[in-house]
Design goal:
globular; 9 strands; ABC_transporter-like_CS; Rossmann fold; 6-stranded mixed β-sheet; ATP binding; alpha/beta; ABC_transporter-like_ATP-bd
């Protein structure tokens, strides 16, 4: 069974059609790039997969189950939708500890995920002093806290400098080597081409192209051709 399955998904906000009859699957153990221009419906789709927005039509499931019906969602799927939703007065460690307690996770997970995202040395600094790149890493640590099989990431490269983007590339590659499934929305085509297995491209809420990413694929040319 696919890790993520989206079937005839649609969403309207008032008179605005954000997603239109969208269907795709994300297979287990793969890194799938979810691409499209701003306003193409990517974030709305990810929010529907995560049960944060109710579809107007269609279904979105994780391992065949809607997110809201998962037994322990934190250990099944981790998500990064924005890197600013932190209490600025808390330290990185305190933020993660609060999440750990709420989810009933092993206390050792906090130090483990801080090390995974290279934030150990900044663990006791208040988040208000973090750069956007450091906030992105803390958001990734939060997503990894439950050691989930699946990661859903919306623009995780936002605010990262070139060194940070290279770090993210290595981080995502390491996650797939661990057997995780990753669905990542991004505009950094040159970087994602180096590590993605599969590509889904949307425009105006509709699927415009999907398929495997091979060494011969010119992703930028493909993207420009199908998004117009």
């Amino acid at each position: 069974m696919s890790a993520i399955s989206v079937t005839h998904l649609g969403k309207s906000f008032g008179g605005v059609r954000a997603v239109e009859d969208l269907s795709f699957t994300v297979e287990r153990g793969t890194l799938t790039a979810f691409l499209g221009p701003n306003g193409a419906g990517k974030t709305t789709t990810l929010r529907m997969i995560l049960g944060l927005v109710a579809p107007s039509e269609g279904t979105a499931t994780i391992g065949g189950t809607p997110y809201r019906d998962l037994d322990r969602p934190v250990t099944t799927v981790g998500a990064v939708l924005e890197a600013t939703a932190f209490n600025p007065g808390l330290s990185a460690r305190a933020h993660l500890e609060a999440l750990r307690l709420a989810a009933g996770l092993d206390p050792a997970r906090v130090a483990y995920v801080l090390a995974q995202v290279d934030l150990t040395d900044a663990a006791d600094r208040r988040v208000r002093g973090f750069s956007l790149g450091m906030r992105q890493r803390l958001a990734l640590a939060s997503a990894l806290l439950g050691d989930p099989e699946i990661l859903i990431l919306d623009e995780p490269a936002n605010g990262l400098d070139p060194a940070g983007i290279r770090w993210l590339r290595g981080f995502l590659r390491a996650c797939t080597h661990e057997g995780r499934t990753i669905l990542v929305s991004t505009h950094v085509l040159a970087e994602i081409q180096q590590i993605a297995d599969h590509v889904i491209i949307v425009g105006a809420g509709r699927l415009t192209w999907q398929g495997p990413l091979t060494p011969e694929t010119d992703l930028e040319e493909l993207y420009m051709r199908v998004t117009g």
